[in-house]
Amino acid sequence: MKYSINTKVYIKSVDRIRKAAPIGLVLLIAGIAPAQALSLDEQRTRYEKAIAAIERNDLATFSSLKAQIKDYPLYPYLEYRDFTRDLNQASPKQVENFLARYDALPFTDTVRARYMNVLASQKDWKALLKFQPSVPRGESYQCNYYYAHSQAGDKALALSGAKSLYLSGSSVDRACDKLFDYLDDKGKLTDKLVLDRMLLAFENRNGNLVRYLDKQLSGTTAKAQADDVLALYKKPQGVADFSKKSKVTPFNQRLTQMAFERLARSDAEEAVAQFKRTVEGQHYSKSERQKWRITSLAD
After folding, report:
1. What angle do CA 245, 248, 254 make, to 5 degrees?
2. What is the pTM of this model?
3. Which of 17, 41, 80, 284 has the fewest CB atoms within 10 Å of its CB?
4. 85-112 pLDDT tens trace
């Protein structure tokens, strides 16, 4: 036909022009209008609108805006918001791929932690250990990790981890309850362990925890020791008398020292008056006595 175009000749012509002309001119000759690049301000505006859209669950608007700013520096954060929206539906492989893609960005720690919670809520303990083969950071995640071992992994490691997490002078995350129940079921939540935690709570000035732990004891001897802990926590002025009358044991030495430090914080003059009797009663060495004098009576 008179006005038909020889395709081969057309392509060769465009190719020759491409080599000599700017890309925009080539696109115009080829009949393609070049897309105008968005400015940084325009990309930022679309980013902010995308965040607002996903927060109001307007996923269509979010997806449209997200597709327009793939070169924007904060685009990975839109990917993060999109991916974690249905994290409980993701497979471990999908999560691993996402983490690998954005390995250098700080939100990967959050994604990993949240997905551990997903697997724990699903009670998929084998998958959790495969996904998180080493001890994670964070108390609740460590509790889930060790509990996963109690169900599908190294049970000795589970018991060791449970003891370590239990021995805290502060209240422990509720996620640890099932781990501590496991410790108790295995006969490892002993009176000695509870008393050791009482001393940590005493040292941490956590009276509520001291009183709570007192109720967890069962043995007669342990209950008597707990009574001493409670008495000295309430009234540290009795520390010298306690030191003198009590048998010299590592437990009583620790309790005496903590009670004396508590007395020194509230009444330094009384602590000075009781110092000699206190250190003599539990047979502290000269170096220990000197350390006490420096740390407890420094003020």
Report:
1. 100
2. 0.79
3. 41
4. 999 999 999 999 999 999 999 999 999 9
